[in-house]
Amino acid sequence: MTDNREPILSNGGLPLLRGVKHWQWWVLVALNVFFLIAGQAAAVLLGRFYYDEGGNSKWMATLVQTAAFPISLIPFLFLSSFTKETEASDSSSRPTFITLAALYIVIGILIAGDNMLYSIGLLYLAASTYSLICATQLAFNAIFSYLINSQKFTALISNSVVILSLSAALLAINDKSDAPQGVSKWNYIVGILTTLGASALYSLLLSLMQLSFEKIIRKESFSVVLEMQIFTSIVATCVSTIGLFASGEWRTLHGEMNSFHSGSVSYVMTLVWTAVAWQVCSVGVIGLIFLVSSLFSNVISTVSLAVVPIVSVIIFHDNMNGVKLIAMLFAVWGCGNYFYQNYLDDLKAKRREPVANVAPNNAC
Questions:
Q1: How crowded is residue 329: how many other Cβ atoms within 10 Å of its Cβ?
Q2: What is the pLDDT of residue 57?
Q3: Which member of 52, 107, 157, 359 has the lowest number of beta carbons within 10 Å of its beta carbon?
Q4: Which residues contact residue 218 at a Cβ distance below 8 angstroms, ignoring those fewer than 6 apart?
Q5: What residues contact 323, with CB distance under 8 A and at least 6 apart?
Q6: pTM for this entry
Q7: According to Swiss-Prot or TrEMBL, what is its membrane topology (predicted)?
């Protein structure tokens, strides 16, 4: 790159977009942060509302997490106006159609499985407990980022991994007094285990997406982010639809809608807005992976999860007992370590690269 107006590589993430000025890069990051926080917080709360009001279809809860993928076209068409399309300099390094198809199919199937695990977890757990356990995705992401993306494993990150693990352990040994009505002790444990599994798989997906952008797709434009979002969502939606019909849950949807406590119109609107919220969140997730890194995307995702327990206490009257409060403080502490590490990395990058220098072409 030769334009000295372009920003310096930040937080050890992916290469910054060519032709993007410093302020434009920050605008893109800020917009994607907003999409992620607002979308995820709203989606989790609406998902809990769906179950509380009488919804019971795990496959429907899974399907709505990707079914609204066409909405991604709207923000990405707007955001793409900030950037210039640039191809990899070596045309031979471009992936073939078969390679891209295989990549999107594999990631799409993993996304569908991850969404199902999240749906089961939210069915059996209060929104606040669910969100606190999801905070462990930072610990999982630290491990996968180290193994897959060569992320440095610093003392602060190691400390955060331990703290977030303790937070999840506290919730695991907590009684089920905060579980939704009618949930057994066994289902409560299943909810914890599936949410932990979903957090681990989600973190693996983030690292695999970052690796895909760096090593396979190797093209710096928002069009590749749009393609990743659309095609993996199509695959995940197809898998979820097949699961909905294969499981027979589709037969119960009409009765579920008629018996929904808030009415059939509320049932439809809940599913529609849940789908929209998840898609807004997904746009933010992939956008931040592309602009910065999977680790940074996961940090912002956890910030959103920290908002949910507070809101769920107000809206759903979730029980905020001492164990859950300590777990929340641990989660905030662990997230704080991540933010401070990113702050130190940013300062180090600025000292290493003068403002007039160009951004490097390789990720750290």
A1: 12
A2: 92
A3: 52
A4: 88, 93, 94, 95
A5: 170, 171, 173, 174
A6: 0.77
A7: Multi-pass membrane protein
Write the burial class of residue 279 (CB in 10 Å: 0-12 exposed, 13-18 middle, 19+ buried): buried
Express each pLDDT in 150-181 by its tens digit. Answer: 777 677 777 777 776 776 666 666 655 566 77
Amino acid making up residue 360: P
Per DSSP, which regions of the chain are E strands? none
Residue 196 corresponds to which amino acid? L
| Listed ranges 13-17, 22-26, 259-263, 289-293; the one with the highest mean pLDDT | 259-263
pLDDT band at 6 (very low <50, low <70, confident <90, very high): very low
Beta carbons within 10 angstroms of residue 258's beta carbon:
11
Return the closest-CA partner of residue 306 out of 336, 281, 285, 282: 336
Q: Where are the domains of the chain?
A: 32-78+98-348
Contact between residue 56 and residue 124 where contact means Cβ atoms under 8 Å apart: no
Cβ(120)–Cβ(58) below 8 Å: yes
Of 219 and 291, the one with more pLDDT: 291
Band of pLDDT at residue 93, cut at 50, 70 and 90: low
- The label of the residue with tokens 């695991």 reads 172
Q: Tell me how far apart the alpha carbons of residues 18 and 244 are, in angstroms, rounded to a whole number.
A: 43
* Token pair for 153: 């494993």
Q: Which of 18, 3, 11, 6 is nearest to 220 (CA)?
A: 18
